[in-house]
TrEMBL record:
InterPro entries: Aldolase_TIM (IPR013785), Alpha-hydoxy_acid_DH_FMN (IPR012133), FMN-dep_DH (IPR000262), FMN_HAD (IPR037396), FMN_hydac_DH_AS (IPR008259). FMN binds at residues 107-109, 136, 158, 186, 276, 298, 354-355. This is Alpha-hydroxy-acid oxidizing protein. GO terms for molecular function: FMN binding; oxidoreductase activity, acting on CH-OH group of donors. Keywords: Flavoprotein, FMN, Oxidoreductase. CDD domains: alpha_hydroxyacid_oxid_FMN (cd02809). Its cofactor is FMN. Residues 28-403 form the FMN hydroxy acid dehydrogenase domain. The active site is at residue 300.
Amino acid sequence: MTDRQIPRWSELKPLLRAKPVTLNPTERRLEKALTIPDLRRVARLRTPRSVFDYTDGAAEAEISLRRARSLFAHLELRPSILHDVSEVDPTTTILGAPSAQPFAFAPTGFTRMMNHEGESAVVRVADRIGIPYALSTMGTTSIEDVAAAAPRARKWFQLYVWKDRSSGEDLVKRAAAAGYEALMLTVDVPVAGARLRDVRNGFTIPPTLTLKTVLDAAAHPAWWINLLTTKPLHFASLSEWQGTVAELLNQLFDPTMTIEDLAWLRSIWSGPLIVKGIQTVEDARRVVDAGADAIVLSNHGGRQLDRAPVPLRILPEVAAAVGDDTEIYLDTGILSGADIVAALALGADACLVGRAYLYGLMAGGERGVARAAEILTTEVRRTMQLLGVRTVDELNPDHVRLP
């Protein structure tokens, strides 16, 4: 028979530890987000459906995006035990300069649509944590304003080649004058992919006030108030546009671009050149032979050709083919620091994350981006420790088994 007694106050007191109350509602939301999918759930509640779906969605049946995430989810991480991992160093070298983390913030279009703080918030977070940030041609903050928001940040400019080459050349010159470190040429958008969520939602830039959007505004008043009471959307590369994203891309971008156009870019840009949108080993070799300093294995986050190759799947073969000649970055499907570590082990020099920080931006502005970065950096460090490695250079294909 168990002897029972009434607990004394001295015994109860250590158990009654009140959690500090967080008064700020944004901080309270972000504290509860422990993963990038947690931030995604908050973002979905805080943002109009059409804007969330523009970020979250992909092309056609969205098979490419699901396959990319599925491959990350089903790979096997293989730890090596009994190593001193009390100190872990996640720093690496990107384009010959140090980066505090083995990832960069990818270029994303229309970022101020996600939250009015937009690209300026993202580049400030990138500056604080010591990683590069790429501004999109389709960004909603000008090249010069992003540079002013974080003068010391490592800034890249992402370029689409326009039908009007003189306009593209002007953008490149503006980026050089504003101190951007590298030019990132995206090559997988000869025409716009079929992003069906946008079509079904009637998504336009800027949002059109219809009965549907007015009703949606009632559910997301803070987002609409911020949009309507802050300065109008200012594009990095054009003054204004009225219409859908697909119509804009098809109006501006040049489907006649070929590998020979890299020589034209080299004639107007003297800094590092990154080519983004590589999806085969053969194309990786072609652009490296044409003078690319780095390549990004990417299917545009699944937003262009559905059923395109999964970047992580082709990474080992590309690394074997060109890894000694150029830096290899990878994007698409990355939702955790463990995903980043797996890509590094399979041959990537760094990763680009886009949706991950956009979910944070939608969830809480600049503080949300910082929370996304904190989640990723914590996961990178912990995954390295659990794998038994102390530096990024120690990661190798033995640490990962693909299904």
